[in-house]
Amino acid sequence: MMRISRPSRRLALLGATAAVGLSVTAITLPGAAGAAPRHQERPTIVLEHGAFADASSWDGVVKRLQRAGYPVVAAANPLRGPATDAAYLRSVIDNIDGPVVLVGHSYGGTVISQAAHGLEDKVKALVYIAAFLPDTGESSLGLTNKSPGSTLGQAIEPVNYALPDGSRGADVYIKPDKFPQQFAADVPTDKARLMAAGQRPIAAAALEEESTRAAWKTIPSWSLVTTEDLNIPVAAQRFMSQRAHARTTEVDASHAVSVSHPDAVTRIVERAARTVR
C-alpha cells in the first residue's frame, strides 16, 4: 500500500509531456494512400460521480487525463439505486469503442461494481476513489454503519416528492451549511459553497438497496482511501479495499478528494490505465 499526503505535480506533468509525444508520432492523415486506421492507444476513462456531487466534481481530473492523452467521459449518475444506475452506466459503456477503465467516487463505486459485471472483455480496470466496494447483498448504508467515524447522518435532510403517476419518494441532501465541513473540508470555502448549492441528491432508498453484483472479484482494482473522510469511515474503506485485493493508496483528504487532490486521483487512474493492453 502506498501513502501520500502531498501529491506532486511533477510526475503528472512529465506523464502529460510523454503522452503528447506519443500521440504526435502515431498520427496518420485520414484517407492517405496505404495509411492504416489509427489505433486507439489508450483506454477510455469513464468517471462515475457519487451522491451529493455531479460530473463537474471530476473537472480537475478530466483536465489532467485529457492533457495526458486519454479519452474521458464524466458520466451523469441518476442516483436512483444501484440496479437502475448500473443499467444506465452500462448503456454509456456500450457506446464506447475499445477498452474502458471505470472510476467511481463514493456511491459511484457501488455503481461501477454492478455495471462492470460480465464486461471483463471491455472493462479492464476498476478504480475506487473514496468509494464503496460492496459485495453481493451489501448496501452503502450498511457498509457505512459497520465502522465508526461517519457524521453524515447528522448532516443530511430528506426532501419528499410526488410524481404525476402518484408515486412518492424521498431524496437526501447534505444541509448547505453543513456541506463544506462534512463533504469538502479541504476544499476552499467559496468552492465548497458552490458545490453545496449544486449538489445532486440521492434517493434515500438507493443507500439501502443491496448490490447484486461485485465486479471487483473478476476485474483488477485500485483504491484511493481518504483518511480525513467524514462520509465513509476510513476503516470501512480499508476493509473493502483489502477484501477486494485492490492496489491501495491513502491520502490525507476529505471525501471530496477529486476536487481537493486531483493530482493524486489522476495518478492512481493512470496507474490502472497503464496496465491495459
TrEMBL record:
PROSITE patterns the record matches: TAT
Domain AB hydrolase-1: 45-266
Keywords noted in UniProt: Hydrolase, Signal
Keyword Lyase attached: no
The keyword 4Fe-4S belongs to this UniProt entry's keyword annotation: no
Endpoints of the signal sequence: 1-35
Residue ranges crossing the lipid bilayer per the database entry: none
GO molecular function: hydrolase activity
InterPro entries: AB_hydrolase_1, AB_hydrolase_fold, Sec-Metab_Biosynth_Hydrolase, TAT_signal
SUPFAM superfamilies named in the record: alpha/beta-Hydrolases (SSF53474)
Identification of the protein by name: Alpha/beta hydrolase
Organism per entry: Streptomyces phaeoluteigriseus
